[in-house]
Predict the structure.
Amino acid sequence: MTSLKIVLRIGGSILGSPPDPGVVKKYADIISRISSKKHRVVVVVGGGAIARQYIDAAKNIGLPNAEQDLIAIQASRLNAKLVGMALGIEEVSLSPRGAVSNVGKQQVAVMGGLRPGITTDTVAALVGEAWSSDLIIKASDQHGIYTADPRKDRYAELLSAISHARAVEILGGKHSPGIHSIVDPVAVGLIAKNKLKLIVVNGAHPENVIKAVNGGRVGTTVG
Ligand code: UTP
C-alpha cells in the first residue's frame, strides 16, 4: 500500500465543548490506526464553541477583529494540545512548515490555528500546500458539501463528488471572525489553486475518516 500524506482537519464542534474525552480517544485511536498503515498525518484541530465564546467576549469588550481571532486561535491550540496528548505527541506545531517538519520525524503532527483572518480550514489547506498532501479530510458536523447550506435551505442536496471549480462556486466568499461554513471560502480557494484532493465527511462517526483514507464512498470528494 502506498504511504499517503494526509491532513486531517477535525472541527472543534466534533470534539465538543467542553471536549468529549470519548470522542478525543476515538480520534486518537483512528489516527494511530492510519499512521500504523505507514500513512503520515498532520491533524489540524479547530476551536469550536469555546473559540466562538472567546470571540464574543472579545467583541463585547470592544476589541478589534484581529484580536478576536487571536483569542480564538489560542482555543484551537488548546484543543490541538489535548488531541496531541491523547496521541503522546508533546508539541503543537505553530506553522505549516513546523507541522511538515514534525510529521517527517514522528509520523503524526498536531496543529491548531495560525494567524488572524483565517480559520483552521485554511490552516489545513496551507499545510496541504506546503506538504503537497495527497488528501485533506475534513471531519465536519455535516454529511458533506451540499448544493446550498442545508441549515438554511431544506431543498439542499448532498453532493458525492465535485470539481474544484464547483466547490469554489458553492463555497467561495470572504472571511469574518467565527465564520461558520462547511469549508471556509479562503481554504476552498487555496485547495482549488493547488489542485489538492479534499474529502468532507461527517466527523460524528470517526470511522468515516478511515473510509475516506481507504477510498470508500463517503461524504463529498472535491478534486
Ligand atoms: P476554527 O477553525 O477554530 O473553527 O475557527 P472550528 O471550531 O473548527 O469550526 P467548526 O467546528 O469546523 O465549525 C474559529 C475562529 O477562530 C479564528 C477565526 O475567527 C475563526 O472563525 N481563527 C482560527 C483565526 O483567526 N485564525 C486561525 O488560524 C484559526
Q: What stands out?
A: DSSP finds nine helices and eight strands in the chain. The chain has a mean pLDDT of 94. The chain has one domain: 5-222.
